[in-house]
């Protein structure tokens, strides 16, 4: 029995010392709206006293910010180890035996006192702050709405000012164009488009302002804060995803930049070499200068195609089935819809290296004669002497025959020829001399090599004489032919030689010769019919 008393005395002394030690420790208060509700001197579980007070403060602040909070709904539950105060199933705070050990109360009694304090203090806080807080929230919402209205008004005024400025500047511009004689109808059609774009931009800005104002309004009232967060997430989350995707894509972007830069400078080097070859700075055996730039363009296309193949795996979404399917679909469409274009491209490449003509040459393609004004990989454009621009597909040129009047005009000379028929009664030596003399006096005909005449046919009633003369002005063929015909008429008229076909002589009465009167000799007599009278 004595030993039992000694044991109880020891336990009492230990508890007294623990209680004294706890009471000497620093307490950590739970402060709500600048009012201390509770003070914790001991920890609980893994929480220190400071962490425990901070957690309880956060829970109580969350409760009083709820619009449906009612302090009378706080409930106390006691079990063998803890006394827990809850609100709608959520724990607010817990009281343990160590909390009760530093007081004169038991754990259930201490928890009851905490519950009474919370109901009283929080009830007073809600009663004092609910109306004032509601008024404050309403005033803040009104301020946000007024600010939104002012911003919309400012945007409308700014765009109205901008529209007036644009119209005034546009009218001034139209006046200057009209004074210079330029057409202004196109400019008048552009102005409504600009006004429509301004209205669209203004509408987008106003919608954006309204959308950004809604989360601010929802955030003012505690019950609508989740909606504010949701609305902001619709903007923030996509921007965040885009930013993160861009950051993750930076290594691939650097790789693409390096590949593109290397390809770009290789293309520039090839273009520089091609330009030097074209200008004659240096030459390559068997490689003509006019091949330089087309070859450079072909190499450029091949290099950029190879570059795209290399960077394709680094493109965003390149491994996507949708991306690959769209790529295949576009490839099929291109291959099915561009067969004629591809044939013209191949023909253009072949014509480039065949060198049948170059820009500026006078050519004949089929029944079209004109000067080459443009050559590209798909078509060739000709301009006739009547200033008609005709576009000929390259495949048509490759499949037909082409006559080039310019290719040898500067070296061998282009031979122009025309034919006349003269009766058998005229000496051929005289005809040759007259035709050569007419050619030599024609502007644009070369003195060397000399013109020459060919007798191309002995017909029933006449002889065909063909004059052949050299020229290096292939682009002036029509004018040279016209002057040559004029000179032939003049020379024959001066010599009194009739160019009229003898066919006509068989039908006419045989009287007057068919040359101008000014070219007739003074002793000319009209021929008559020879009639022999027999006795």
TrEMBL record:
Stretches assigned to the Mechanosensitive ion channel MscS C-terminal domain: 417-499
Gene3D superfamilies cross-referenced by the UniProt entry: 1.10.287.1260, 2.30.30.60, 3.30.70.100
GO MF terms held by the record: mechanosensitive monoatomic ion channel activity
Regions crossing the membrane: 134-155, 200-221, 241-267, 298-316, 328-354
GO cellular component terms attached to this protein's record: plasma membrane
Mechanosensitive ion channel MscS domain sequence ranges: 341-406
Signal sequence range: 1-22
Location(s) in or outside the cell: Cell membrane
Main subcellular location: membrane
InterPro entries: LSM_dom_sf (IPR010920), MS_channel_C (IPR049278), MscS_archaea/bacteria_type (IPR045275), MscS_beta-dom_sf (IPR023408), MscS_channel_2nd (IPR006685), MscS_channel_C_sf (IPR011066)
Pfam families listed in its UniProt record: MS_channel_2nd, MS_channel_3rd
Family statement: Belongs to the MscS (TC 1.A.23) family.
Protein name as annotated: Mechanosensitive ion channel family protein
Organism in which the protein naturally occurs: Mucilaginibacter psychrotolerans
Species classification: Bacteria, Pseudomonadati, Bacteroidota, Sphingobacteriia, Sphingobacteriales
């Amino acid at each position: 029995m004595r030993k039992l008393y000694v044991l109880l005395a020891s336990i009492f002394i230990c508890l007294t010392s623990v209680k004294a030690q706890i009471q000497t420790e620093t307490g950590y208060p739970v402060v709500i709206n600048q009012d201390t509700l509770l003070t914790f001197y001991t920890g609980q579980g893994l929480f220190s006293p400071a962490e425990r007070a901070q957690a309880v403060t956060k829970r109580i602040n969350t409760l009083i910010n709820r619009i449906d909070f009612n302090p009378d709904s706080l409930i106390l539950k006691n079990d063998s180890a803890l006394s827990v105060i809850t609100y709608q199933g959520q724990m607010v705070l817990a009281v343990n035996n160590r909390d009760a050990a530093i007081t004169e109360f038991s754990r259930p009694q201490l928890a009851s006192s905490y519950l009474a304090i919370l109901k009283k203090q929080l009830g007073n806080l809600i009663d004092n702050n609910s109306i004032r807080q509601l008024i404050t929230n309403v005033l803040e919402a009104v301020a946000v709405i007024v600010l939104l209205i002012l911003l919309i008004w400012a945007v409308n005024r700014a765009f109205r000012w901008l529209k007036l400025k644009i119209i005034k500047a546009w009218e001034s511009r139209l006046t200057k164009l009209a004074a210079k004689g330029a057409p202004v109808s196109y400019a008048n059609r552009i102005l409504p488009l600009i006004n429509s774009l301004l209205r669209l931009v203004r509408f987008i800005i106003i919608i954006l302002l309204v959308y950004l104002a809604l989360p601010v309004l929802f955030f003012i009232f505690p019950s609508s804060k989740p909606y504010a967060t949701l609305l902001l997430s619709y903007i923030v989350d996509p921007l965040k995803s885009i930013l993160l995707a861009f950051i993750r894509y930076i290594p691939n972007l650097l790789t693409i930049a390096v590949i593109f830069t290397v390809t770009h400078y290789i293309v520039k080097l090839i273009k520089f070499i091609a330009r030097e070859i074209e200008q004659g700075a240096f030459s390559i055996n068997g490689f003509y200068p006019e091949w330089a730039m087309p070859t450079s363009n072909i190499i450029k296309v091949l290099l950029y195609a190879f570059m795209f193949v290399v960077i394709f795996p680094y493109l965003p979404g390149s491994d996507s089935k949708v991306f690959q399917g769209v790529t295949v679909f576009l490839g099929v469409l291109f291959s099915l819809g561009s067969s004629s274009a591809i044939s013209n491209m191949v023909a253009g490449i072949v014509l480039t290296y065949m060198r049948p003509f170059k820009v500026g040459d006078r050519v004949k393609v089929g029944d079209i004669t004109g000067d080459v004004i443009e050559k590209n990989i798909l078509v060739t454009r000709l301009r006739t002497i009547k200033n008609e621009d005709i576009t000929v597909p390259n495949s048509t040129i490759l499949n037909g025959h082409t006559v080039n009047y310019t290719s040898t005009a500067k070296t061998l000379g282009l031979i122009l020829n025309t034919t006349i028929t003269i009766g058998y009664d005229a000496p051929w030596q005289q005809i040759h001399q007259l035709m050569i003399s007419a050619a030599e006096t024609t502007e644009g005909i070369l003195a060397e090599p000399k013109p020459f005449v060919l007798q191309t046919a002995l017909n029933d009633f006449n002889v065909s004489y063909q004059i052949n003369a050299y020229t290096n002005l292939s682009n002036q063929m029509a004018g040279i032919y016209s002057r040559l015909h004029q000179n032939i008429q003049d020379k024959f008229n001066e010599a009194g030689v009739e160019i009229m076909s003898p066919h006509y002589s068989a039908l006419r009465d045989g009287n007057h010769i068919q040359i101008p009167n000014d070219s007739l000799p003074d002793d000319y007599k009209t021929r008559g019919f020879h009639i022999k009278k027999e006795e």
